[in-house]
């Protein structure tokens, strides 16, 4: 399931609770700092609500100095290209292959 929130904050806690009934893996992808972003909000939500069954991978810009460069070079350096994100997901969740469906389910949120 792909969730594309309109806003990172406030977090749509009702939607997240609903999704956690059927999902135990969460991947957040952001082209900005993971500190203060959607991933951190989700991590805080999980801890605050004692939801320990979810395995989370937050992909984004780490809290460290990132040098100058072209968009493509920086995305590669930060492991944020589609191929690198796929690789990171497979490594993090110990997957040998990714399951794909012909029609991906997408959930939007207004919160």
Task: Please provide a brief summary of the model.
This protein is an alpha/beta fold and 111 residues long.
What does the model show?
By secondary structure, the chain is α/β, with parallel strands linked by helices. It is built from four helices and four strands; from the N terminus they run βαβαβααβ. Strands 1-4 form a two-stranded parallel sheet. It is globular. It starts with a strand and ends with a strand. The model has no long low-confidence stretch (mean pLDDT about 85).
| Strand content bin | 15-25%
Spatial strand order of the main sheet = 1-4
- The backbone outline, from C-alpha atoms, is globular
Please summarize the sheet with the most strands.
2 strands, parallel
Q: Which radius of gyration do the C-alpha atoms yield? A: 15 Å
Q: For the terminal residues, how far apart are their CA atoms?
A: 18 Å
What structural class do helix, strand and pairing data support? alpha/beta
Number of helices: 4
Query: How many E-type strands?
Result: 4
Q: Which residues form runs of ≥5 with pLDDT under 50?
A: none
Relative helix content? 25-40%
Estimate the mean pLDDT confidence.
Answer: 87
H/E series, N to C? EHEHEHHE
């Amino acid at each position: 399931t792909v969730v594309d929130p309109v806003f990172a904050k406030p977090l749509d806690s009702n939607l997240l609770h609903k999704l956690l009934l059927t999902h135990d893996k969460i991947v957040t992808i952001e082209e900005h700092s993971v500190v203060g972003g959607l991933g951190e909000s989700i991590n805080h939500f999980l801890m605050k609500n004692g939801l320990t069954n979810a395995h989370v991978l937050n992909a984004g810009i780490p809290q460290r100095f990132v040098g100058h460069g072209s968009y493509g070079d920086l995305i590669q350096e930060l492991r944020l290209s589609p191929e690198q994100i796929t690789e990171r997901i497979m490594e993090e969740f110990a997957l040998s292959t990714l399951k794909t469906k012909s029609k991906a389910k997408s959930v939007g949120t207004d919160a």
